[in-house]
Each structure stands twice: as structure tokens, then as C-alpha cells.
Write a structure and sequence with these properties.
Shape: globular
Order of helices and strands: HEHHEHEHEHEHEHHEEHHHEHHEEHEHEE
Strand order of the largest sheet: 2-8-7-6-5
CATH superfamily of the largest domain: Type I PLP-dependent aspartate aminotransferase-like (Major domain)
Distance between the termini: 61 Å
Strand content: 5-15%
Helix content: 25-40%
Bound molecules: ligand F0G
Number of strands: 14
Number of helices: 16
CATH architecture of the largest domain: 3-Layer(aba) Sandwich
Radius of gyration: 22 Å
Length: 462
């Protein structure tokens, strides 16, 4: 009999050379740990976690090439050769002219916000990100969401939910005038929308619009290569273009960038600000010494900059991204088989569960996403993260934001877990889904002032 295979399997373009042993826990141990952590997965001890899907940030496995680059790091205080190597990689793969290293993405956001935003300015963006918006606000700006409506609809299957709705931007320009809008922040693969891409077509339209009005485009390029993968898969005319070329094209449509190298660039720490504008660079190069360190290290060790240079190159490989995003899709499909309500299409860095649909009997003030993240940890030791009302925080006037999306993020670190781990995760979510009607919500008993999701504490509702 002839063998027929509908679709041939793919596998990762690497193999393991070293493994990290994990602690296995019992349900009773996990329930105790959870209570001690105030039902906030950020406050668990990582040691008590079996499969850690809290974030894809700084949790990547570095390659043998990155580790060997570590050994060649130049730890000079000033003018380290590792800085020039990283600068060269950024210029070569992203195309920005000037580079200022920072300890991570938010360090770059701080510099850029202070330099470009004046008090009373408006800063539009394709959805907010927690630290990005806070830095804009601390610099005196007001964030305005101009992402397309589909992004706020967990069920919409629109392929480019990261797109900017240019009519929303235009309304803002008409209301306040372009002079009050120093730049629009465009994130590639929008994190809070579920890891959703922006299309080149939309970026080109935005470029045309902003050129006409004298507004800059600042690129939050944290997950640009994952966005490029989706463009290659979904956008007309890009099927045969390499991720490397798509990444370069995306960057060429923008004026400056902030980067958390802890994601796409496959390292455990690091970031940078980049710009094509000499004056902005001059100021950033000066300001960085106040917050991060000299402009040739910006809070990083030489070895970190070496690893970033190698990681950037590895991140734009077509084979790497196929396996990376392919693993996320695999988890999504497994969860979908169990009927779990998910944000669609599946994102680039994780699977986002629609907690409002999962726990429809809870109000948003009973924190459905926070509750669900806690329940999943108790079930299996899988750690996930709330991306809903707690993450959204409060407005300047103290009122809560009530985001439409109330999500639990199952974020997959790059090159870390196997397909079998993904099976365990999907089955755990399924077991919690099976008893969802019995699940009660949480109440917040401690709320920090800034970015409350990191340290807030909760108790179970009776
Ligand atoms: N922008 C985006 C889109 C991000 O996802 C992050 C971090 C940052 C900026 C800030 O970068 O952490 O290096 O200072 N996201 C992490 C996450 C924390 O888990 O999504 P950072």
C-alpha cells in the first residue's frame, strides 16, 4: 500500500546540547505557592514553575554561537569593540543609522519619550504597551489608541490586526493639529492584541500620511521578525521574499526605533534605541549617560552586545521563524481542539485565551484573566500571564481602564520547550476549561502605583 502523508512535518533547525533540569511539584505545593504569591503569577518563585510561559522576554535559549560570542565580549568602559559589532548588525539587518544601547526596551522608551515628547502632546499608537505608554505619560504625553477595530475583537480573524486605522489618526490630527503629535508609535506584531502583525501595505499608507503632516514614525521593533514571518505567509506579493528583506523593508518605512532585544534578538538582556536623525541621536547619546551608562554600553556588558549581534542575525532566518511561530501555532491548534476560546489568528509569540469567554460568569472586576492564570498554575505548574484589566491599569484621573480584551497569555520562549511540553500545556488548559463553571473570581488586596500587574496581590472570592 502506498504511504500518503497529507502534510509533511517540520522540526526545529537545532538540537540540544545541554538541558536544564526542572523541579516537579504536587498540586498541594502549587496551591500553597499560589496563595503565598497573592494569586499573582509574577510573584511565584520560578523554581516552583514547571513550564514557564509567563513571557518570551529574556527567556530565550541562546545558541552555541551566541555563547561563544560571549567569550569574545570586550568589557572596555568606553569604545568597546562589542558595541561597534552590535551597531554594525543593527545597521546591516535593520538599516537604522545611529544606535544607542540600553539595558532593555523600556530604557530606550525612556530616552525616546523624553527627547521627542513635550508636555501636552498626543502620542498615537497601534494599541498600548504597558511600559511604552507609561514612559509617554511620564514625559507629559497622552497616548491615543489608533489600531484598527478588529484588534479589539478576540474573535475577528482579520489577518493584520496590528494595522493602524488611518482615519482614527486623521481624526486626532484634525482635533489637535499635527504639531501636537511628535510621532506615532508603531509596534510590529502587536503584543497586547495577541501578537498580531501590521501589513507593509498599511505601513506604506501610514508613511505617506505622516510625511504629508510632518509626523515621525517610531517603530517598537521588539518582535519585528515575527511580524515579517506573517507578512511572508499572508501578504500579497511577499511569498518569495525572505524574512531578512521584509524586516529591512519594515524598518525603512520608519524614522526611529526602540527595541527590547530580549525577544526577537534571542538574548536574555539588552535593548537599544535607533534613529536616522542625527539630532535625536545626539540627545539620546547624551541622555543615556544619566540613566543607563556610557553611549557605547548603555547598561550592557560587552558580552551582551556580542550576543545581540549574533542573535539579530539568527532571528531573521526563515528556518528559525518557521519553527518559532510554528510551535506557537501547534499549541493553538491543540487548545482549539478542546474548544478553548482563543484570540485568532494565532499570534507570533504566544496563544492568548479569551478569559471573558472562558469564564463568562465573572465580571471584569472579578479579574477573569488573573483568575484563569492562577487556576492553570494550580492545575499543572504551567505559568501564564494576565493581559486584561489589571495590566491596563488606571488613567491619569485614577479611573480604571476597562479594556475590551481580557486575555491570558501563554507566551512561548524561543528555542526552549518541546512539542511534548506544548501537549502538557494544552491538556492543562483543557482540564481547567472542563470545570470552568465552578471557578470563582479574585479580589485585589494590594495595588502598586505603577504597572500594577507586576506586584498586585489578590485573594480568592468565596
Ligand atoms: N514593547 C513591547 C511590545 C514589549 O512587549 C515589551 C516587553 C517592551 C516594549 C519593553 O521591553 O521588557 O525589554 O523593557 N514586553 C515583555 C512582555 C515584558 O512580557 O511582553 P523590556
Amino acid at each position: 500500500m502506498a504511504i500518503k502523508i497529507e502534510k509533511r512535518s517540520w522540526a526545529e533547525p537545532y538540537r540540544m546540547k545541554m538541558v536544564e533540569l526542572l523541579k516537579m511539584t504536587t498540586k498541594a505545593q502549587r496551591e500553597k505557592a499560589l496563595k503565598e504569591a497573592g494569586y499573582n503569577t509574577f510573584l511565584l518563585h520560578a523554581e516552583d514553575v514547571y513550564i514557564d510561559l509567563l513571557t518570551d522576554s529574556g527567556t530565550n535559549a541562546m545558541s552555541d554561537r551566541q555563547w561563544s560570542a560571549f567569550m569574545t565580549g570586550d568589557e572596555a568602559y568606553a569604545g568597546s569593540k562589542s558595541y561597534y559589532l552590535m551597531e554594525k548588525a543593527i545597521q546591516q539587518f535593520y538599516g537604522y543609522k545611529y544606535v544607542v544601547p540600553t539595558h532593555q526596551g523600556r530604557g530606550a522608551e525612556n530616552l525616546l519619550s523624553q527627547i521627542m515628547i513635550k508636555k501636552g502632546d498626543y502620542v498615537p499608537g497601534n494599541m498600548y504597551f504597558t511600559t511604552t505608554r507609561l514612559h509617554q505619560e511620564l514625559a507629559g504625553g497622552t497616548f491615543v489608541d489608533v489600531i484598527c477595530d478588529e484588534a479589539h475583537d478576540a474573535q475577528s480573524e482579520f489577518p493584520f490586526k496590528g494595522n493602524v486605522d488611518i482615519s482614527k489618526l486623521d481624526a486626532l490630527v484634525k482635533k489637535h493639529g499635527a504639531k501636537k503629535i511628535p510621532y506615532i508609535c508603531v509596534a510590529t506584531n502587536v503584543n497586547m492584541a495577541g501578537g498580531q502583525p501590521i501589513s507593509i501595505k498599511n505601513l506604506k499608507e501610514l508613511r505617506e500620511y505622516t510625511n504629508k503632516h510632518g509626523i515621525k514614525i517610531v517603530h517598537d521593533m521588539t518582535r519585528v521578525a515575527e511580524n515579517a514571518f506573517f507578512i511572508q505567509q499572508r501578504e500579497e506579493g511577499y511569498k518569495n521574499t525572505s524574512i531578512k528583506d521584509i524586516v529591512k523593508e519594515i524598518c525603512s518605512l520608519t524614522d526611529a526605533a526602540t527595541m527590547s532585544a530580549k525577544k526577537d534578538a534571542l538574548v536574555n538582556i539588552g535593548g537599544f534605541m535607533a534613529t536616522n536623525d542625527w539630532d535625536v541621536f545626539e540627545e539620546a547619546r547624551n541622555l543615556v549617560v544619566v540613566y543607563e551608562g556610557l553611549h557605547t554600553y548603555g547598561g550592557l556588558a560587552g558580552r551582551d552586545m556580542e550576543a545581540i549581534a549574533v542573535g539579530i542575525k539568527e532571528s531573521v532566518s526563515d528556518h528559525h521563524q518557521k519553527a518559532r511561530v510554528g510551535q506557537v501555532e501547534y499549541l493553538g491548534k491543540r487548545m482549539e481542539e478542546f474548544g478553548i476560546p482563543l484570540v485568532k489568528p494565532f499570534g507570533g509569540h504566544g496563544i492568548f485565551v479569551d478569559a471573558k469567554a472562558f469564564l463568562p460568569h465573572l465580571t471584569q472586576d472579578q479579574y477573569p484573566a488573573q483568575t484563569l492564570a492562577a487556576e492553570i498554575y494550580a492545575d499543572s505548574g504551567v505559568r501564564t500571564m494576565e493581559r486584561g484589566i489589571i495590566s491596563a491599569g488606571r488613567k491619569a484621573n485614577g479611573e480604571n481602564y476597562y479594556p475590551k480584551l481580557e486575555l491570558v497569555r501563554f507566551t512561548i520562549p524561543r528555542r526552549v520547550y518541546t512539542q511534548a511540553h506544548m501537549d502538557v500545556v494544552a491538556e492543562s488548559a483543557a482540564m481547567v476549561y472542563d470545570r470552568r463553571k465552578k471557578i470563582k473570581g479574585l479580589k485585589m488586596v494590594y495595588e502598586p502605583k505603577y504597572l500594577r500587574f507586576f506586584q498586585a496581590r489578590f485573594e480568592k472570592l468565596k
